[in-house]
Specification:
With 83 residues, the protein is an alpha+beta fold. The protein has a two-stranded antiparallel sheet. The protein has a two-stranded antiparallel sheet with strand order 3-4.
């Protein structure tokens, strides 16, 4: 009976190694595809989260554009901003 357990353990170890090698190969292939140019992140002035400008909620005030991660942060900023 112990030989069955040994065979199962060897099969599991081999499967883990194959998956590991496959994951490494996939990561290398993805890294060499020539991804788009890096994007400069901007910081949400309310919570400090870094966001991509294209996905953030912009707010232009006093000649400056502020970027927010959510409506909640933008609304909190507007409510605390001096008028």
């Amino acid at each position: 009976m112990s030989w069955i357990i040994r065979i199962l353990i060897v099969i599991l170890i081999l499967r883990a190694i194959i998956r590991l090698v496959g994951g490494i190969r996939a990561g290398i292939a993805q890294g060499t595809k020539g991804n788009a140019d890096p994007v400069q992140l901007v910081r949400d002035p309310t919570c400090g989260t870094f966001v991509v400008p294209g996905r953030a909620l912009p707010l232009a005030a006093d000649g400056t554009t502020y970027y927010f991660c959510s409506d909640r942060c933008r609304d909190q900023y507007l409510s605390s901003a001096p008028r």
